[in-house]
Here is the input.
Amino acid sequence: MTLKAVLFDFNGTIINDEPIHQQLIEQILLEENLRPQPEEDRKICLGRSDRTALKELLTRRGRFVTDEYLNKIVAKKAITYRSQIEKLEKLPIYPDIADFIFKLQASQLLMAVVSGALRSEIEMVLNRAGLRQYFEFVIAGDDLMASKPEPDGYLLAVERLKELYPDLQIEAADCLAIEDTPAGIRAAQQAGMQVVGVPNTYPFHFIQRQADWAVDYLCDLEIDRVQQVYAGTTVSS
Here is the structure.
């Protein structure tokens, strides 16, 4: 087993945009004449695709949601999200992301994004932040039938890596996921990957109990030590 690729979640890992999403979801509920319940709604939404989260939020409140209507409100939310992001003078990208990416690049590791967010949102943010060039591809919610904590996104990422780099013979066990929520951690682990958890959304002790590694900041992660673990080499303290 060799570490060959690092797969990033997006919301809460690359960009700190949870407050924007929460505001937009509350707005949707209010337009439906429903009262937002911030803490409960947050638990339902974090780490999951908009489509899955909104369907559950509305269903729990007794609404019958057709696919057509769900498509409509997801599209409306996406337009509003992009509009709000475009208005920001500075994107709320986590400050250590760029340095961490350069560290991975120096270690000759492949990188990709695996997220339940819409492709239009991910591509817009990555392009504006000047980060898109570092990722081999993006697996977005548009590509998937199932949301995290299902492993579908990570399994699809492995298939893409195999197609792009057949000589590397990449398997799920050769990939490391970067996640900030229990749903994301579970998805990557179910796909057969180890996970680095970052406490951007949940407390450190909560993430530490679920992920294989936990760091306060991604730049704290010692890639050489992680590579030694993957290689089965004894890591000295």
